[in-house]
Specification:
alpha/beta, Alpha-Beta Plaits, TIM Barrel, 2 domains, five-stranded mixed beta sheet, 15 strands, 16% strand, elongated, binds 2-carboxyarabinitol-1,5-diphosphate, binds magnesium ion
Length: 420
C-alpha cells in the first residue's frame, strides 16, 4: 500500500503541507514521500492487521506532488484526520514524528495551507493591526518601541524610570525582555505597578497613548494569574514567549478571553526555523500564531543582528497581514477569511540608521523596536528614543537621514556612534 497518489486533486477542505525532503542514501523521493505521508497520518513502519479499509480510504494522507529537482513533496490531509480546534494535535500529525525518522535524511516544512473549515475554528487576533492603531490613535506610520536593557538586572524602580525616559523621548512602546519574569530584584507585581505609574505620567506629558508590553511568560497557571493582574491594572497588552510557552498554552490563553492584546516574542524559534534543510520555517510558525490569535509577532528585520533575509521577512509579513496570500515558488495560496492581520515586529540589533531600510522592506504596519539602539545612545535612553523618532520623521517625510541629522542632534549622535 502506498500513500503516493499523483493523480489526486486536493479538495478545498484538505489541509496541505509543502515539505522539502532529503531521501536517505540509496532511496528516492517516492520512498521518502511515502514514509512522510505514512507516519504523519495513519501508518507506521510495517503493514497493520488492524488497519480497517474504511480508515485507509477516509483518513490516509495523499502525496499528490513530488518535485524531484527541488526535493519538494506536497501532501494532502483529509480534515477528518484532525480534531479541528486542537492545534497541538494537528501539528503532532503533520509536523511531529516525521522529523526524527531514519527513513528521512532531512525534512523541512515550507508551508501549511489551512482550509476554511479549520480556520473558522480559531479566533485569530483580538485586535490585530487596526485594533492596535485604534487603541493608540497612531494611524499613518510604523510604531516605535524599545526593550528595557540590560535585559535582566535593573531593579523594578529603575526599570520604570528607563521606560519613562523612552516614552517621553518619543517611543510608543516599551517592552520587557524575553527572559525578564519575576526575578528577586524585579518582582512582576512591583514592576507592573511602577511602570504603569510612569506610563500615565508619560501619556500626560506627551499627550500620546503609550504601550507597555509586560512579560507574563511563566508556567501556565502562574501566567494566567499574572494576566489577571494585568487586566485588573487596565494595561492594554501582555507579552508572551509563544514558542517557549507552546502551542497548547498560546491557544488556551487566547481562548481565556482576556481583554489585553498579545505581543508574541518568538525566542527559541531559531532552534527549529534556522536550518534550511531541516525543521519548520518561520513562515509556517507565523501562520499558526496568526490563527491562534496573537496581535503582534516578531518576524525579523533583514538588516539587524538576527538571521533572516529581506525576501523571507517580507513574505512572512505578507502571510500575517494579507487577507488573501498569493502562491509563489515556495508558498501555497492562503485565504484568511475573518482572521485579522497581525502587526509585524522588526527587532534585533536595530538603531536609528536602520529605520528607512526596515520601512522599505516591511512597510508601515510594523513595530520598529530597538534595545541597544536606544539605551546605547551616547546621551542615554531619552536621546536614543528621540533619535529613533527623528529617523522615522525623516523617513516619513522622504528626507535622507544624514540630511535630517544636520538639524537633529540626537539623530546625528546616533548615526555617528552606530554607523561611523
Ligand atoms: O534580546 C534581544 O536581542 C531583543 O530584545 C532585541 O534587542 P536589541 O535591540 O538590543 O538587539 C529581542 O529579543 C530580539 O529582537 C528577538 O529577536 P527576533 O525579533 O528576531 O525574534
Ligand atoms: Mg530580547
Amino acid at each position: 500500500m502506498t500513500y503516493i497518489d499523483l493523480n489526486y486533486q486536493p479538495r478545498e477542505s484538505d489541509l496541505l503541507v509543502w515539505f522539502r525532503a532529503e531521501p536517505p542514501a540509496g532511496k528516492d523521493m517516492k520512498y521518502v514521500a511515502d514514509r512522510i505521508a505514512e507516519e504523519s497520518s495513519i501508518g507506521t513502519w510495517t503493514d497493520l492487521k488492524t488497519l480497517l479499509p474504511e480508515i485507509w480510504e477516509k483518513l490516509r494522507a495523499r502525496v499528490y506532488e513530488i518535485d524531484e529537482k527541488n526535493k519538494y513533496v506536497k501532501i494532502a490531509y483529509p480534515l477528518h484526520l484532525f480534531e479541528i480546534k486542537n492545534m497541538p494535535a494537528i501539528l503532532a500529525s503533520v509536523a511531529g514524528n516525521v522529523f526524527g525518522m531514519k527513513s528521512v535524511e532531512a525534512l523541512r516544512v515550507l508551508d501549511i495551507r489551512f482550509p476554511k473549515e479549520l480556520i473558522q475554528g480559531y479566533l485569530g487576533p483580538k485586535y490585530g493591526v487596526q485594533g492596535v492603531r485604534e487603541m493608540t490613535k497612531v494611524y499613518d506610520r510604523p510604531f516605535l518601541g524599545t526593550i528595557i536593557k540590560p535585559k535582566i538586572g535593573l531593579p523594578a524602580k529603575m526599570h520604570a524610570e528607563v521606560a519613562y525616559e523612552a516614552w517621553v523621548g518619543g517611543l510608543d512602546i516599551v517592552k520587557d525582555d524575553e527572559n525578564l519574569a519575576s526575578q528577586e530584584f524585579n518582582r512582576f507585581e512591583e514592576r507592573l505597578a511602577l511602570t504603569l505609574e510612569k506610563k500615565d505620567i508619560a501619556e500626560e506629558e506627551t499627550g500620546e497613548k503609550k504601550i507597555y508590553l509586560v512579560n507574563i511568560t511563566a508556567p501556565y497557571k502562574e501566567m494566567i494569574r499574572r494576566a489577571e493582574l494585568v487586566q485588573d491594572s487596565g494595561n492594554e497588552f501582555v507579552m508572551i514567549d509563544v514558542f517557549i510557552s507552546g502551542f497548547s498554552a498560546v491557544q488556551s490563553y487566547r481562548e481565556e478571553g482576556f481583554k489585553m492584546a498579545i505581543h508574541a516574542h518568538r525566542a527559541m524559534h531559531a532552534a527549529i526555523t534556522r536550518n534550511p534543510e531541516h525543521g519548520i520555517n518561520m513562515l509556517t510558525l507565523a501562520k499558526v500564531y496568526r490563527l491562534l490569535g496573537v496581535d503582534n509577532l516578531h518576524i525579523g528585520t533583514a538588516v539587524g543582528k538576527m538571521e533572516g533575509s529581506a525576501k523571507e521577512v517580507s513574505e512572512i509579513r505578507e502571510e500575517i497581514q494579507l487577507e488573501n496570500v498569493p502562491a509563489n515558488e515556495s508558498r501555497f495560496e492562503q485565504k484568511w477569511y475573518e482572521i485579522k492581520p497581525v502587526l509585524a515586529v522588526a527587532s534585533g540589533g536595530l538603531h536609528p540608521g536602520h529605520v528607512p531600510a526596515v520601512v522599505d522592506i516591511l512597510g508601515k504596519d510594523i513595530v520598529i523596536q530597538a534595545g541597544g539602539g536606544v539605551h546605547g545612545h551616547p546621551e542615554g535612553t531619552r536621546a536614543g528614543a528621540k533619535a529613533m523618532r527623528e529617523a522615522l520623521e525623516a523617513k516619513m517625510q522622504g528626507i535622507p537621514l544624514e540630511e535630517y541629522a544636520k538639524e537633529h542632534k540626537e539623530l546625528r549622535e546616533a548615526l555617528e556612534k552606530f554607523l561611523h
